[in-house]
Design goal:
Layout: E1 2-7, H1 22-33, E2 39-41, E3 45-52, E4 59-66, H2 74-84, E5 91-97, E6 105-109, H3 117-126, E7 132-137, H4 147-151, H5 157-180, H6 182-189
Length: 191
């Protein structure tokens, strides 16, 4: 079975380590953990491919990062899904989530975009929100800080201490979704 795992974020070094790019940090970890090499795809995405599991039950996984900005990620991701003929039910989107505490992880299928421009773009391009999601908690901005500014900032030093662990757990959550399914993954990760 073929899976497409997409980490949402913005391209370029200035956005690399920001809260908005936590999804891309997790797919980077997935590629690294599975010794997969990144390459450029004509869909305007960077991709890495690997197998999860062994033998005939092994799942084929493509991890991807769009080269477009967050609010335009739907087009490249849909083009990639079409190219590989991946069913919507086998697409996992990883994204930052303001409404859950920092380092908390929640997985679910479908739902609204909650003002997230990346999800808005994906849902619009696919004409459906029926894809799996790994929601990676970044917490709310402190005080009166604008959420738009907050998501584009790097993690605070206290957060950076937990970041490696958070990214590893995000990667484990994705692997669990693929190998164990949604319900078991929710039991294990939706703390």
């Amino acid at each position: 079975m073929l899976w497409l795992v997409v980490g949402l974020g913005n391209p370029g070094p200035e956005y690399e380590a920001t809260r908005h790019n936590i999804g891309q940090l997790v797919v980077d970890q997935l590629a690294k953990s599975n010794s997969a090499k990144w390459s450029s795809h004509k869909s305007r995405c960077d991709i890495a491919e690997f197998k999860l599991g062994v033998g005939v039950d092994a799942a084929s996984v493509i991890v991807a990062k769009s080269k477009s900005y967050m609010n335009e990620s739907g087009g490249p991701v849909k083009a990639l899904a079409n190219f590989y003929k991946v069913e919507l039910a086998n697409i996992i989107i990883l994204h930052d989530e303001l409404d859950i505490p920092f380092a908390a992880i929640r997985s679910k299928v479908a739902g609204g975009d909650n003002g997230h421009n990346g999800l808005k773009s994906l849902t619009s391009s696919f004409g459906s929100a029926e894809y799996l999601r790994v929601r990676l908690g970044i917490g709310r901005p402190p005080g009166q800080q604008d959420p738009g500014d907050f998501v584009l900032k790097q993690f605070a030093s206290a957060e950076k201490k937990e970041l490696t662990n958070f990214i590893l757990r995000g990667a484990d959550c994705v692997e669990s979704l693929i190998t164990q399914g949604l319900e078991r993954t929710q039991s294990a990760f939706n703390s």
